[in-house]
Structures are given as C-alpha cells and as structure tokens.
C-alpha cells in the first residue's frame, strides 16, 4: 500500500510541475521547468525501431559510471542503445537536458520507489539488459544519467556529442 501511495503522490507532483510549466510557457515568461521547443529539438525524440542506423552498447556498473561515458552520433541519426546493468544495484539510463536530469534526480531522491516508463529512459535491475531507440535531432551536446537516488550525485553521467551532417 505504501508503494501505491508513493506512486500516486509522485504522479501528482509530476502533473503539478507540468501544469506549472505549461502556465509559465503560456504567459510568455522565462522559466526553468517544462519542455522548451529548442531543448526538445536538441535532445531529440523517440526513434523508430525500423530506422535504426546503428547500435551503441552502454554498460552501467556500481562504480557509478557509464561505459562509454562519451558517445558521438550524427545529426538525425537513429541510435539503438543496448544498455546492460553489470552491477549489483538498480541503474538506469535517462537521456535529457542537464536541468531536467538534475530536477528528476532530486525528485527520485524524495520518491525512490517512483517508477516510470518513458522512451528516453531504461531502468534495469542487476544483470538485466534493455534498449532505448533515440533519434538525435540537432547538432550539439545531449546528456544522459542514472537518476537512481545518489547515483547522479556520485557522477553517473554521460554525454552524447551530436555532430552536424
């Protein structure tokens, strides 16, 4: 019952933050929450699995590091991230902007049992594998991190460099 209450509270808080972000966008003022059109274009979007151009294997481990920690892709490239948790702790790979990742990591610290299933992330128990298929829309830098409580703060972060065509 506690897990259910935690999940409901977490969902409520996420909805509240999204609602505030929408309101801030609608009044035309700058804000730190919500989706930015330019931010989304840089980060990219869920990729079509039938259009994958290559697979990049990523390992997560209990040293709080991703291997590789730096990945290079081309603008518009659809990548399948084959993610493996070789550690003994639960880990995840989440693609996002530095601000969004930090905000989400703080939320995960408050609600460690929060579960989510978004196309920009994969959460894995020890010894498990999973995938993210992602299309990188614009040249620039895109971050990824593990948002399990304490992992982000311990430096479990990585960077995708998206190079222009």
Q: What is the fold's blueprint, element by element?
A:
Elements (H helix, E strand, L loop, with lengths): L1 H25 L10 H7 L1 E2 L7 E8 L3 E3 L2 E5 L3 E8 L5 E6 L1 H13 L10 E4 L4 E7 L4 E6 L11 E7 L2
Parallel strand pairs: 2-5, 4-10
Antiparallel strand pairs: 1-8, 2-3, 5-8, 6-7, 6-9, 9-10
Q: Would you mind describing this structure in some detail?
A:
By secondary structure, the protein is α+β, with helices and mostly antiparallel strands. It is 27% helix and 34% strand. It folds into two domains: 34 residues; 125 residues, Immunoglobulin-like (Sandwich), CATH 2.60.40. The strands form two sheets. The chain has a five-stranded mixed beta sheet with strand order 1-8-5-2-3. The protein has a five-stranded mixed beta sheet with strand order 4-10-9-6-7, with helices on one face.
What's the N-to-C terminus distance? 51 Å
Give the CATH topology of the largest domain. Immunoglobulin-like
**Main sheet strand line-up:** 1-8-5-2-3
Total tally of structural domains:
2
Report the order of strands and helices: HHEEEEEEHEEEE
- In the CATH hierarchy, the architecture of the largest domain is Sandwich
Please give the number of β-strands: 10
Question: Briefly, what is this?
Answer:
The chain has 165 residues and is of the alpha+beta class. It has 3 helices and 10 strands, in the order ααββββββαββββ. The protein folds into 2 domains: 1-34; 39-163, Cupredoxins -  blue copper proteins (Immunoglobulin-like), CATH 2.60.40.
């Amino acid at each position: 019952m506690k897990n259910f209450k935690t999940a409901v509270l977490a969902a409520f808080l996420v909805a509240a933050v999204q609602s505030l972000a929408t309101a801030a966008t609608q009044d035309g003022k700058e804000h730190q929450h919500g989706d930015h059109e330019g931010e989304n274009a840089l980060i990219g979007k869920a990729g079509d699995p039938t259009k994958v151009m290559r697979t990049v294997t990523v390992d997560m481990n209990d040293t709080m590091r991703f291997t590789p920690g730096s990945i290079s892709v081309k603008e518009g490239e659809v990548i399948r991230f084959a993610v493996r948790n070789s550690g003994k702790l639960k880990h995840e790979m989440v693609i996002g902007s530095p601000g969004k990742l930090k905000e989400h990591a703080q939320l995960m610290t408050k609600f460690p049992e929060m579960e989510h299933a978004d196309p920009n992330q994969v959460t894995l128990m020890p010894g498990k594998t999973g995938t993210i298929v992602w299309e990188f829309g614009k040249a620039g830098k895109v971050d990824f991190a593990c948002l399990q409580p304490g992992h982000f703060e311990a430096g479990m972060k990585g960077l995708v460099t998206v190079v222009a065509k």
